[in-house]
Amino acid sequence: MDEVMTVADAGGSRASNLNGSPSSQNLLPHNLPLLSAFLAFALAQFLKVFTNWYKEKRWDSKKMISSGGMPSSHSATVTALALAIGLAEGAGSPAFAIALVLACVVMYDASGVRLHAGRQAELLNQIVCEFPSEHPLSTVKPLRELLGHTPIQVAAGAVLGCVVAYLMRSTS
Length: 172
What we know:
mainly alpha
């Protein structure tokens, strides 16, 4: 006779999710990779205010919500995510492999494509500024120039992400 497995037989977390009471394993506070990524992002964005002050000698709170600058919040986020997954599931897990490839793509993009797009925007803005006032493009809103990161900014973000992921794991 064939045996039938019911939802109740399947185990705790799935059954409790289907019954409406969430499992403690699926709640946001217990997802260390996700929390590590969010914390690394927030910390990197917060630090941009101070690194901008150090470089420009002026406070600019808008740096907390802008792209570009030191350290790279994109690098911090994906590095914290990848390392937290690696620490939790092991370096041989498929989730770690996916997160590591994602981190490499994001960091390459930040220091390559986006950096050069920002430099092109800077040149285009200079060209538009030199147009005579009667030119139809002379009143165009300038392009955002701070899009990407230098390799040092990307590396600083990656180090920050590693520190956050490691500290989050050691405190849990």
